[in-house]
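Notes from hallway chat w/ T.B., transcribed later so I don't forget. T.B. wanted the structure written out for a chain they're using in a teaching module, and asked if we could keep both sequence and structure tokens in one place. Agreed to drop them here.
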Amino acid sequence: MSMLYHIKTYGCQMNHYDSERIEDLLAPLGYKKSDRPEDSDLVILNTCHIREKASEKMYSDLGRLSKYKENKIKIGSDLKIVVTGCVAQAEGEQIIKRNRDVDFVLGPQSYHKITELLNKKNQEKLHNFFPKESKFDYFPKTETKNISAFVTIQEGCDKFCSFCVVPYTRGPEFSRTVNEIVYEIKHLSNQGVREVTLLGQNVSDYKGMYQKDGKLEKLDLSKLIDKISDIDGINRIRYITSHPSDISSKLIHEHKTNMKLMPYLHLPIQSGSDRILKKMNRGYTQKNYVDIVTKIKEVRKDFAVTSDFIVGFPGETDDDFLQTLNLTDKVDFAASYSFKYSPRPGTPSSLLKDEVPESVSNKRLQILQKKLDESQKKFNNSFVGKKLSVLFEKRGKKSNQFVGRSQYLQPVHVNSDESIIGKILDIKINKVEAFSLHGEI
């Protein structure tokens, strides 16, 4: 009888990639995936530590899992509970103290040990150190039926933004070798993947070794993308997330010359105020950021830029917030995410005392998000009556409806049949609903 597992993923795309790799590790052990944690023999919470609510949600889920475990034990069975991800790294000891039913806590660089731990008894519960070996060496070949896939190429960050936990939870910057990335993407292409998104906490600072004919050289992101472009079957390439300080002229030029590289860039700015950017230790000014966007749109006029914003950072004044709003007038963002500042334990900004009142942060968030939503609607509406190139990935929620992504990452719906999955088609856009587009072939 197969063992059942359930995995819940919080947070970023890299966590989703990690969850898929955990699934690859469990498959040879005979585990089958379940949508019902209460029926499972193993439940994994792959956690995010970027915002406080994600951490709180995890502890709430653990309380519910403890009840399931208690019920399983009553009938002579068991439920193993495993916590992985960034909360596991940052709060491992606290997790074990707060919930004794947790069997293992594995940091982001240690989750490849899960098979070893499940096969042995009386193991230590906490594994949140940074091992010398690379976890990527332990993964089996990825099996997928998806048309689009994420591939982690870089982890960790050396920027030490004052609000960010990534350097402490993911560790220093580490780039996988070009050869192993190309090998993984070739395997994905052979399974029908047509689009890859290259992942990294600071992906634009990728520096990976490349071996050919016995010689080693270090390649940057633009050169890696160039190598990936030569893989048969890969039609589209994206990358996320970038830091403005690392957008090089070579990377911008790659967008000009490489038509497989999508005209889309997610480039978090966080604030439009130079004073706040300095307190955040971001390493650039508003002008630097606008100059980068201008250069990109000079090489490709059809370019779409999205961003992240934090409001209510300690010490943010009305004038600082006004400068953020002014930035959104200078840059026509295709879409963006905005969040209230959330202090994370252990970060420099968590020690700052000049907190912005909750009511002020809430009001600023509403104002900013309204502007960003309007900008996104303007961008989407600009395509009504025009054509977009769409890669179709899956069925939609309605009968005969299929969903794909435009070159700008917008979801596009059409009525058709299964034959369009995996194809890139020109779609005439007829209307925009909420934040998705609808059209016809």
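Follow-up for T.B.: Residues 358-381 form the longest helix (24 residues). Might be a good example for the class.
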